[in-house]
Amino acid sequence: MNSDETCARDRLLHAAAEVFGECGYKGATVRDICRRAGVGIALVNYHFRDKEGLYLEVFRNLFTRALREYPPDMGLNESPSTEERLHAFIRSLLYRLTMMEGRHAIMLREWLDPSPSLVKLHAELTNPLLKVLSEILSGLVDPHIPQEQTAHCATSIIGQCMFYSPHSMRFRLQAFPMYQERQIDTIARSITAFSLGGIRAINEEFRARGESHEG
Amino acid sequence: MNSDETCARDRLLHAAAEVFGECGYKGATVRDICRRAGVGIALVNYHFRDKEGLYLEVFRNLFTRALREYPPDMGLNESPSTEERLHAFIRSLLYRLTMMEGRHAIMLREWLDPSPSLVKLHAELTNPLLKVLSEILSGLVDPHIPQEQTAHCATSIIGQCMFYSPHSMRFRLQAFPMYQERQIDTIARSITAFSLGGIRAINEEFRARGESHEG
Amino acid sequence: MNSDETCARDRLLHAAAEVFGECGYKGATVRDICRRAGVGIALVNYHFRDKEGLYLEVFRNLFTRALREYPPDMGLNESPSTEERLHAFIRSLLYRLTMMEGRHAIMLREWLDPSPSLVKLHAELTNPLLKVLSEILSGLVDPHIPQEQTAHCATSIIGQCMFYSPHSMRFRLQAFPMYQERQIDTIARSITAFSLGGIRAINEEFRARGESHEG
Amino acid sequence: MNSDETCARDRLLHAAAEVFGECGYKGATVRDICRRAGVGIALVNYHFRDKEGLYLEVFRNLFTRALREYPPDMGLNESPSTEERLHAFIRSLLYRLTMMEGRHAIMLREWLDPSPSLVKLHAELTNPLLKVLSEILSGLVDPHIPQEQTAHCATSIIGQCMFYSPHSMRFRLQAFPMYQERQIDTIARSITAFSLGGIRAINEEFRARGESHEG
DNA sequence: AATGAATGAGCCTTCATTCAT
DNA sequence: GATGAATGAAGGCTCATTCAT
Lengths: 215, 215, 215, 215
What we know:
DNA-binding, 10 helices, mainly alpha, elongated
């Protein structure tokens, strides 16, 4: 459609995001990507050196673009409460995951089943986000609770969000209905409430155990 | 070791579980599987018709074996409470996931990124488990809460467990420490407590909203 | 022609000898070789692992076969003189070179411009021949002549023969007439006479210089 | 170093001489040549029409430059003897071959294994040299000896020199020591002595045969 | 004079699959 | 029940070449 407007390099990135998302790294073929982009096969070697180089660039592009569009403090007012910050974090994560749907499914695949060669880049891009979550949790979890337990909470929260990915098992089992983009806010509220309740329970259990030890 | 004792078909299944687990469906090669199994290449077609047929059989085998060893009511006494049943469900799921680790990572891959052709079998095997969870949740979630919200709770619970899979992103980012097999019980307790708190919060929120509507 | 009689592996070797000889290693294509052999493309990988593996095997095959057919003591009677042994050596070398003509030109190419990966095998196969020549020369060259000078004589002899290769420059410049197989004996006699004269001259020069030093 | 001083065309020729020499015609890539020359890829087509055109030009350049530097009468005094002229011819040939070593190995490759498309140019450049050698030999070989036999002598002489090429088999087998540039004169003397002896032997043999026929 | 983005043919290799035994 | 020789389609990648600037 826009094969005459944008430059070939960008068309290649665009098509690669689609194909990698649909077929995964191994399943995608350079030929198919170039055909969809409407460019010669040799261009992937010319611009990105490799199939892997192309993949890496696509990944980086999508990740940063999604993060720019849906940052972890998305839609927060001036002085948000910690609960609001957690909600924003969860909501933005869900939005990013949803945004990747269809032509940008590559990111989801990478989250669910990372390619060995991309682990480094992945960690590089993801670690800042994890730090944000850790910082939010430090305002919710009892400060005496051991670090490990807090990490479990973080894992629980991210795990819930990831599992809503349209590429996860949940999507295919059809036991649960497919969710629409406009339902994301509902899901975000649900996960937030669920998680706040979970954290509260962890706190209570910890305090109860502490008292029984002391008493 | 037992390459001379067990029959070729079983050796093939064993080797296939390894290779599919290590490399994924696309990444695994029939040649490699047969080499590891110590059998001729044509045997895969002879016994399983296809690479896909072999994959399917491996999947069914591992799934049912894991389910036999760690059933969803694992370790429950005679008349368990609903909370105990949820804990048993979560714990058995974690054990099954962990059991598949290493030699049998194929299952985890399939959960995270199902092959299209296996969705049917997958649903066939998984749906009974989801029914069990639904039934457990029906004893914990306020009966007036809409079906959809209950489904969200189920999704949250399974999502948490899945995310502990050693093949998921969490495992590779190293922000969280790798867990040992003996730590599964700890994780199971944590997820159970977190989820019970989550469900309680969902219930409370629903009632609060209901009262505000009524009042 | 005999594509139904001999086994595929041999047909492949035969065709490869032809194509490598005509086009060189780089210039030859696996596709062309397989087409000429009347076999599928994957067979080169199946039997020889690589294009290089095939090349290596072709080389070894031709070399040993030529050596079996025209050994360096070809046509010698019971107690040959040293001159006769040199003549036999030169004649057999010319015969081997000529035998390679056409479909077996690969060897000539390898002698003239060795592939890096084959140097080892080449030396392995050639060194015994060089030892034979050295031993012959030790009966012709003055024993007081330094080793290096003897090596020069060996080089001169082999160089003369090699240059008659139908693939060498001489062949293409057309300043010299192409030689027929039946002329090999004439050429062998010429080179032998030339070389014996050369060795004699080297001996004389050495002695003359020695006397002038002494006197 | 002088990548900014000399014009692009010359830098291209220089780099091409290197790369062609190292990798041969097929092995060399236009991209590599242009990268080494520090110019755009399209320039080879612009200046030389073709990869082959570039090769041809490089060849002609090197050949004429070597011939200018080491002409076949190199270092001769006013009225040289025929033997001295043969020595000069051999010595200059060895020098030219050696000069091409390293950066300009292309010439040696071409002598050993000429590209079909260059045979014409090659003959054009080489034939005058062969005429010089023929003329020298006419002063050494018995005038009654048939033309063909004289040609054999010429072939023997050139063959000996060519075989000293650092790219020939001799160089790689390590059975003979590598020669240094300063040893060229020694080698030239050796080949000259060897060849004069050879020619003398050919003459003697011819006369002996003639007498036996007459007598 | 010179560039570099872009191309398509073609190369080597791999892979799942089959057939004769 | 089991083998392994043999296949063809397809994949990633390279290369000489051209075109617009």
